[in-house]
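Record type: monomer structure entry
Structure origin: computed from sequence
Chain ID: A
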Amino acid sequence: MGPDYLVDAGNTTCKVVATPAGVLGTIFRYDLTSLPRELTQPGLWVVLAGSNLEVLNQWKIEIQGCGSKAQLLTRDKIPILKAMDDPSTVGVDRLLVCLGAQVLHGKGPHLVVDSGTAITANLLGEDGHFFGGAIGPGFGLMNRALAEKTSALFEVDLHKPFAKFPASTTRDAIRLGVQMAAVGFVRQALEWAKEKFPNCPLHLTGRDAPLLHPNFPSANLNEQLLFHGMLATLHTPLGTP
């Protein structure tokens, strides 16, 4: 018997996936202003994870108040080995996407790039240890920062085709500049990862992973890595509710 729903609450949105018979369904995205309606039914088992601990704790209470079981996955429950100076602060979401890559593609090495509000590059060694990585601003965050912190620039639609350099309009130049920053982040992380592990594959996940994939066509694109990591956590003794 598995959970009815998996929930990932991030910095700006949440993702909800139904898991009938242990199979991952379609990702549905919601804002963080209220508990998604499907989670208010009684008699459910809902598993929560993510970076927004305030929202997660509040929703756990609300789900339990609706007569359902709510389980919050914490860092100590995720069955992944860590080789860091201070693993006590690493994000749950970073560990879960790496575990998802292991579930689908083997122990390691892996470079897992999760592109959402922030963009993170996360490195797993050949023996499966999580070494850490890098964290930078995501597509949307860079886009908003340019609009908010400059007097003449504005937000643009990042999901339109990117222009080639040199961009001939300000709108295209902003779109292209944001893309260049994100792509450069991933290229540098991949270069350093391959210095350590020459056969290290690249995995792209997260809301904006499709924006990166054309620049890394050989990468594995899977927006559900985090949810695969959640299911794997539940299937271990540490993850048993």
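Annotation 1: Residues 76-230 form a domain with the Nucleotidyltransferase; domain 5 fold (CATH 3.30.420.40).
Annotation 2: The longest strand covers residues 130-137.
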